[in-house]
Design a protein that fits this description.
By secondary structure, the chain is an alpha/beta fold. The protein has 10 helices and 13 strands. The structure holds uridine 5'-triphosphate (UTP).
Length: 279
């Protein structure tokens, strides 16, 4: 059973400056909830109750958000405003939260390796909270992936088809189809130019990783941009054993940039806020 979910949240969020100068990108509100709360809710819905967050300097708001504010609780006790806190109270009562700091921002692979002491030697999920994933028609994306993990017992990465002109924003995979929306990964390239991309199947911010990934990251040299890329370690894992890419059911919004963030805001306003499902 997978119980742990790691949230790498130490990045600088430069695409969202100046908003992210003194505030973590993961705390940007989509309508009335910060991005990371959507991610933790998705994790809890998938049965993942041990939440580990990799933070960095200037990210203390994350820890405060997943804690009780006694003054606030006292202030709104017995008023109709209590309904606003129902969702976050559920997370606090059903999940545990632990934190570690990444002291140098050396990339996503390095951030995941920084989380190793919180994860230990067991399979775990990774959520990049700035990718907001929703599925109005059934299981959340992590739930879909946990089910697949229980079947295949190997690393599962979420993919989606992207505009071929935009492959340079993603890790891109190639592989053989082994089932509906499922591929066994044979090749993986980080941010390829469209003419070099092996497909238009792009990795997005949801992973289930087996713990051998940690040693593979350790052996990974800095790649594109001087960062330790998770894609390089995943490529080794695919060569050694098995990595499955899954074209998930649902929608994903890239909230790390203005366009996706606005789309997510409109979507959540229509589908959650206006329908009373936002708390
Ligand atoms: P991104 O590249 O999307 O995030 O990393 P970023 O660096 O914060 O944003 P930009 O590109 O400058 O706007 C993907 C995820 O990995 C985390 C980020 O917080 C984000 O959730 N990350 C990235 C780390 O935790 N540490 C790092 O060193 C790099």
């Amino acid at each position: 059973m997978i119980k742990k979910c790691l949230f790498p949240a130490a990045g600088y969020g430069t695409r969202f400056l100046p908003a992210t100068k003194a505030m973590p990108k993961e705390m940007l509100p989509v309508v009335n909830k910060p991005l990371i709360q959507y991610g933790v809710e998705e994790a809890l819905d998938a049965g993942l109750t041990e939440i580990s967050i990799v933070t960095g300097r200037g990210k203390r708001a994350l820890e405060d958000h997943f804690d009780i504010s006694y003054e606030l609780e006292n202030q709104i006790k017995g008023t109709d405003k209590e309904k606003y806190l129902v969702g976050i109270r559920r997370l606090l009562s059903e999940c545990s939260f632990s934190y570690t700091r990444q002291t140098e921002m050396k990339g996503l692979g390095h951030a995941i390796l920084t989380g190793r002491p919180l994860i230990g030697d067991e399979p775990f999920a990774v959520v990049l909270a700035d990718d907001l994933c929703v599925n109005l028609d059934g299981d959340g994306v992590l739930t879909q992936m946990v089910k697949l993990y229980n079947q295949y017992r190997c690393t599962i990465i979420a993919i989606q088809e992207v505009d071929p002109a935009e492959t340079n924003k993603y890790g891109v995979i190639a592989g053989e189809m082994i089932g509906d929306d499922l591929y066994r990964v044979r090749n993986m390239v980080e941010k390829p130019a469209p003419e070099d991309a092996p497909s238009n199947l792009a990795i997005i911010g949801r992973y289930i990783l087996t713990p051998d990934i940690f040693d593979l990251i350790k052996q990974t040299e800095p790649g594109k941009g001087g960062e330790i890329q998770i894609t390089d370690a995943l490529m080794k894992q695919a060569q050694n054993g098995c990595v499955i890419a899954y074209k998930f059911k649902g929608q994903r919004f890239d909230c790390g940039g203005a366009e996706g963030y606005i789309e997510a805001t409109n979507f959540c306003f229509e589908n959650f806020y206006k329908t009373g499902k936002a708390y």
